[in-house]
Design brief:
Elements (H helix, E strand, L loop, with lengths): L2 H13 L2 H7 L1 H29 L5 E6 L19 H8 L7 E16 L2 E10 L3 H4 L6 E2 L4 H5 L4 E4 L1 H8 L8 E4 L2 E8 L5 E2 L2 E2 L3 E5 H9 L6 E6 L5 H15 L10 E5 H44 L1 H9 L4 H40 L11 H27 L3 H6 L2
Parallel strand pairs: 3-10, 5-7
Antiparallel strand pairs: 1-11, 1-12, 2-3, 2-6, 2-11, 4-7, 5-10, 6-7, 8-9
Helix pairs in contact: 1-12, 3-10, 3-12, 3-13, 4-9, 10-12, 10-13, 12-13
């Protein structure tokens, strides 16, 4: 018997029990759709995060306090107070880091701002005037504070578009005063809608001189980050090496394993984020794949029921000359057709849900989200669904093929 005939017989067998066939493949459909959706959203999230990180520029280097996190137990290390004023002065010396173009200390944290009867919870970002160059950030209205404001601990602020909208609405914000921690800050600039850059949403940030933030807002004498810009991209490696050597000398560290700081380039961040998102996506895909196993067991169960119900048919076919191989092939075909059909439907549903989710995230949530079609996921889904049909259909098919034709014809 040809494969074409086996295929036709398998199709007719499934058509005879349409509703049961549809219900049988639900597990496969759900599993494949979930895998496609997760892989698509995972790829979209990775692209979004990486685009935000890369928005800082390839020449930007970040220095963070504490030991570089290697696992969950090291997370607390990033809250260290190891970056001090003396480190800023040492790094600023051309003799220590000759390829350093700009360095900006940063302190940040959440605080509530008030204007008349309105309040808004926002992020305070203590920085210097170099923020304009490093983050490519310029006020839409007004201007940034200057070096003089940093030296004088001036109470001035440049606010993001969201803060302006929440506190002032359609009114003019420039020249007005907002209260943060019982201190009045004069609004000297308003940022255009910028959105997320690296790990900060500049629409919800109030930028003030870092000296003011340290003294009046956070009450600290250390920094949360140093943002450093190298002269050229080719200087990145040398700059990183000089930064580490300078800070080790400043902290009296002779063993690199005992560093109380860590340095990250944009390439490091991109690599790390890619690894994290890939691992998370694979984990979620593995969870979703459980439904494929459940679906496969369901198919095997239904196929066993089908073999029992069609005992007379099997006996008749054998009496008319069908071999064990013919019967085996027919039932394997039925299982594979079921799962492959479920796989195709699952892929189409997964892509549809991904498109809808991408549209919602970009249109209504305001994220710069791009739909990504996971072609690897579609291929994997199709192949896995076929394998599930083959593996879980093999036992029922073999059971059907070894039935005695005389006993099968007598079966009621």
């Amino acid at each position: 018997m040809t494969l074409k005939n086996n295929f036709k017989i398998a199709i007719n067998g499934l058509k005879a029990h349409k509703m049961r066939s549809i219900l049988t493949i639900l597990g496969i459909v759900i599993g494949i759709a979930a895998i496609i959706l997760i892989m698509s959203l995972g790829a979209g999230a990775q692209e979004l995060i990486l685009s935000q990180i890369q928005g800082l520029g390839s020449k930007t280097i970040a220095v963070a306090p504490g030991r570089e996190p290697k696992g969950p137990t090291d997370v607390a290390q990033i809250m260290s107070d190891s970056l001090k004023e003396k480190d800023l002065l040492e790094l600023n010396k051309k003799t220590n880091v000759p390829t350093l173009k700009n360095i900006m200390p940063i302190v940040f944290g959440g605080e509530t701002a008030a204007f008349e009867n309105e309040t808004y919870r926002m992020t305070i970002f203590g920085a210097s005037e170099l923020i304009m160059d490093i983050f490519d950030l310029f006020p839409e209205k007004g201007f940034f504070f200057a070096e003089e404001d940093i030296k004088n601990n001036s109470s001035v602020a440049v606010i993001g578009a969201k803060i302006k909208e929440e506190l002032f609405g359609s009114s003019e914000a420039l020249g007005e005063k907002i209260k943060i921690k019982n201190r009045n800050f004069t609004i000297i600039g308003v940022l255009p809608k910028k959105g997320q850059v690296s790990f900060f949403n500049f629409d919800e940030i109030a930028i003030i001189p870092y000296t003011t933030a340290q003294k009046y807002i956070f009450g600290i004498k250390y920094f949360h980050r140093f943002m450093i810009e190298a002269e050229t991209e080719s200087d990145i490696e040398r700059t990183v090496s000089d930064i580490k050597e300078t800070l080790r000398n400043s902290h009296n560290i002779t063993d690199p394993e005992k560093d109380d700081f860590f340095v990250e380039t944009q390439a490091d961040l991109v690599s790390r984020i890619s690894t994290i998102t890939n691992i998370l996506t694979l984990f979620l895909v593995a969870v979703a794949a459980i439904s494929l196993v459940v679906g496969g067991i369901g198919i095997m169960n239904i196929m066993l029921v089908s073999v029992t119900e069609r005992t007379n048919e099997i006996g008749l076919r054998k009496a008319l000359g069908a071999t064990k191989k013919n019967i085996l092939t027919q039932f394997i075909f039925e299982a594979i057709i079921l799962t492959v059909s479920g796989g195709i439907i699952g892929i189409l549903l997964g892509v549809s849900f991904s498109l809808i989710a991408s549209f919602i995230l970009s249109r209504f949530v305001g994220l710069n989200w791009q739909f990504t079609f996971p072609i690897e996921g579609a291929i994997i889904g199709f192949v896995v669904s076929a394998l599930v049909g083959l593996v879980f259909g093999l036992y029922p098919a073999r059971k059907a093929s070894i039935k005695n034709p005389i006993e099968a014809l007598r079966y009621e």
